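Q: My collaborator sent me two sequences in one message, no labels, and asked for predicted structures for both. Can we handle them in order? The first one she listed is below.
A: Yes, handling them in the order given. First sequence, followed by its structure tokens:
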Amino acid sequence: PLLVAKMMPVHNGACTLLGLRKSITHSLPYPYSKCQDLARFDSPLYGVFKRMNKTYQQEVCFEMWKQLKTIEECNCSSSRYPRLDTHSSVATCMLDKDLTCSDQVKAKYLTSASSLPECLAMCPLECVSTKYEYSVTQSTFPSYEMFSTLKSNYSTDIVQHFHEVGLLQNDSSAGIEQITYGQMASSMTCLSVYLDSMESVSY
């Protein structure tokens, strides 16, 4: 599916564990719920999903609608939203006035898009939806035990890494024993992504 970008707090000196929770919801269409039977629906933005052969998601459609408003009000497309194949010739917002305009559009529709009839008419709620939530935990990285191990049992890759980040002056291991824990931690990070849970709910 098309994705909506979200920022993750990943930084040097820490190991970040990203736990994903996947939920799939199956609902009966209107009048039993507020979702739309997509087999009987069409709109300009829904057409983008069909032409790209992508799974429809209301959340992504909202972002496309904001892109459409950016194009209408700023005459350029924002890099923060998915591009629209119907407006592929529109230039990306690059000039200061364009970026200011796109920021104003973002602020204008940041919380209201999902409740505006104009937006909902083009981006209905799907009856089968997949959502991902995540939790983030962090721990110190590397551990002091790993720090000692890397200094005493270093590999060619580790020496090359320390050379590239400026902790060693050449490709040899000379001086590796002088590297402090703080220096090593500031040049390293780790990220682990795992599926925490998955559930399917029907209404």
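Q: And the one she listed second?
A: Here it is, processed independently of the first:
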Amino acid sequence: IRKELIMSTAERGKVRVEKGRYRLDGKFHYGYPNDPIWNEDGKLMGVTNPRDVTHIHMYGGEAPFFEGLGKGKLLGTCCDNPDCEADGSIFIPFRIHCPDCLGKNTIVDMTDTARKGATVHTFMTTERTGAFNTLPKPIRFVNVEFEGVPTILMGYLSVGKPEIGMKVVPIFNTASPTYTILDLSWVPDGTNESEIPEGFTF
């Protein structure tokens, strides 16, 4: 692709919020010229259709969870409706509303709980990933459970090999947060700070 055809980051779509409404600026979809696809005999087989797409992912009521990760906090939610069977239940991953009474949950900081009592419930290691993966392979996905929490949080292990029942602690990308779930990772309890990925903190 010729240099003059590549969209600059200054042109790339940006979003801001004014008076509670999303305002869009720039280009959110940019098509580049097609390239022909030829077989070994010189016969046209098709074309490429390169595109640059900026996807808008709105967090709504889950925004505090993702903002908290960038600040080194793991937030959950709690049903505090005394008339609900789930009263006092804490949910991680973050649930805006109680699945039983549909009342709005209260945000609770679960960082210390995760540091004291998180364990690997199940795990999976994969060498193949989907498009746009930014994690180094192999990826060691872990389902993490917390004492007193009825839900399980999926994440990834940054150091070592996972085992069922392994004690793990959270680490957070606080140096340059992406405000996605990738800002939260797990390491075995007792991991030295020098072993964790650059930009992450306990």
